[in-house]
TrEMBL record:
Swiss-Prot/TrEMBL keywords: Membrane, Transmembrane, Transmembrane helix
Any Pfam family matching the protein: CbtB
Lineage of the species this protein comes from: Bacteria, Bacillati, Actinomycetota, Actinomycetes, Micromonosporales
Record's protein name: Cobalt transporter subunit CbtB
Highest taxon, organism lineage: Bacteria
Transmembrane segments: 20-39
């Protein structure tokens, strides 16, 4: 005789679509930011070496080669 009852209905999704798309968008934005900081040499950002020089020490701290 057990009185334990499940709170969640059996057919309820574990993760809603909104949460899933928010997580996917956040990952894409983080990957784009990592690309701009680490590997872009002015190809996308159109800043030339300004972004590279601005983030220079951080790039080395992350282990991204640049020289």
């Amino acid at each position: 005789m057990s009185n334990i009852q499940s709170v969640r209905p059996l057919n309820a999704p574990a993760v809603s679509a909104r949460v899933l798309w928010t997580a996917v968008g956040a990952v894409v934005l983080l990957l784009l930011l990592a690309y701009l900081v680490a590997f872009d040499q002015g190809a996308i950002s159109q800043s030339g070496m300004y972004l590279h020089e601005l983030m220079h020490d951080g790039r080395h701290l992350l282990g991204v080669p640049c020289h």
